[in-house]
Amino acid sequence: MIQQGDIYLANLNPVKGHEQAGFRPVLIMQNNILNANLNTAVICPITSNLKAKGKLTTYFLSKKESNLDKDSVVLLFQIRTIDKTRLKKRAFQLDKGIFLKIKKELRFIF
């Protein structure tokens, strides 16, 4: 079952405008009650393009923290709902402490 704090590889195509596209890692933000009962998931895309690092509503993840191939940035400002069929493979479960830091950063948006 999909869990809050999981990193999945997902196909975000097709997109419109400035939405993050492609086959990429995403962070599951949605709580586990909704994960168990809905066919959709609230996610934040992750990019290895470090130009976004340090910008408002982003969170830097080292490859050690995320188990990804490269240091990456969680694009909190790109939060969106996707159908679970877009989620292709579970890559990693973030440490709870790191996830809570990311969740705290998300409060700036709302």
* Secondary structure category: alpha+beta
Q: Kindly state the mean pLDDT as a whole number?
A: 95
Question: Terminal Cα separation, in Å?
Answer: 27 Å
Poorly predicted residue ranges: none
Largest sheet: 7 strands, antiparallel
CATH architecture: Roll
**CATH topology title:** SH3 type barrels
Shape: globular
Gyration radius (Cα, Å) is 13 Å
How do the SSEs run, as a string of H and E?
EEHEEHEEEH
The portion of residues assigned to helices is 10-25%
What's the domain count?
1
User: What is the count of DSSP helices, taking H or I runs of 4+ residues?
Assistant: 3
Task: Please report the first level of CATH classification, the CATH class.
Answer: Mainly Beta
Number of strands: 7
Q: What oligomeric state do these chains adopt?
A: single chain
